[in-house]
Amino acid sequence: MKAKWAFLTLVFTIFTVLTGCEPLLVLDPKGPQAETTSNVIWISIISMSFIVITVLVLLVIILSKYRASKQPADYEPPHIEGHPVVEGTIIGIPILIVIFLSVVSVISSYQVESTPAGYEDEEPLVIYASSSNWKWHFSYPEQDIETVNYVFFPANRSIQFKLYSYGPITSFWIPQLAGQKYAMGDMVTKINLAADAPGEFMGRNANFSGEGFAENTFNATALSQEDFDKWVEDIKKTEDPITEEKFNELLQPGHLGQLSFTGTHLDFSPAPEGEHAGHQHGDSSDKNHSEHEQNNKDKSSK
Question: Is 207 within 8 Å of 136 (Cβ atoms)?
């Protein structure tokens, strides 16, 4: 009787806790990159479930069929040199599983790192996303505006975020649109994504970075192209320019609400790419451009 009530209590507790949980955002994709990630997660879950269930079933069969109580007291098992089928099975199946998951991982990794499927022929919208304790700064070089703790972008268009940090290493993550990517202080990393339709999405820093980490979040909103263009126009009409003094103030540790500015901090505090990279992670064109400028300066000085 006690066991029955303990079981019912456990079931009721699990049911109550699960009903209060939010849906797993990574399993509710709203873009091609996130859909690839979600598919890989489901493939992994199904593969591991198959392995676990198979092992448990075999365990029950072996314990039931070959337990000691079934044999006579003077029973001695025969000496067996080996069984090709058994040995081939216990070695071959794990190898096949590892090969299968490896192929899935490699293919999906290339897919999520490249331009989203269906958007290969168009130029992506580039947005610089930099983190500081404990804020996110979004710079739009093409639109010449900047936001803090929120980002707007067009739906049905490829978006490329260029990531870096003004503080500790952080991880840029919009679960319903793409996987995580680290933002570091001495180089720029990139993440590509696209939203299939207008909507609002939760974004956050997924890497522990101090006491304010829990609130290091931002709102990501996909708009129609028309609404996005109108939003850009409104920012330019109503917001003040960002200055170096104001930007340095924003970099101080603390939490802020959502802010908007005209201009970007890239003018006076460039991203660590090309000639500004801490370890020269820029591409060869950036380096050649920098060398060309330096040669021109040397010639003019002579």
Answer: no
Residue with tokens 């263009």: 229
- pLDDT band of residue 11 (cuts 50, 70, 90) is low
Q: Give the whole-angstrom CA distance, residue 20 versus residue 125.
A: 38
pLDDT score, position 300: 44
Q: Is the dihedral of CA 150, 200, 124, 236 positive or negative?
A: negative
Strands 181-183 and 170-173, by their bridges, are: antiparallel
First-to-last CA distance in the chain? Answer: 97
Residue 216 has a pLDDT of 92
Does the structural domain 125-292 have CATH classification 3.30.420.40? no
Closest CA to 165 of 208, 206, 207, 136: 136
Is residue 288 scored above 50 in pLDDT? Answer: no
Per residue in 267-288, is it b (16+ CB within 10 Å) or e — as a string?
eebebbbbebbeeeebeeebee
Interior angle at CA 295, CA 290 and CA 298, nearest 5:
130
Q: Which tokens hold the place of 227?
A: 């609404």
- Whether the CB-CB separation of 203 and 181 falls below 8 Å is answered with no
Domain boundaries, the chain: 24-66+83-114, 125-292
Torsion angle of C-alpha atoms 247, 210, 257, 273, degrees rounded to 10: 40
Among 189, 187, 190, residue whose Cα is nearest residue 276:
187
User: Global pTM?
Assistant: 0.78
Please enumerate in sequence order all residues whose Cβ is within 8 A of that of 153, keeping only pairs 6 or more positions apart, or say none: 125, 127, 159, 195, 220, 221, 222, 223, 228
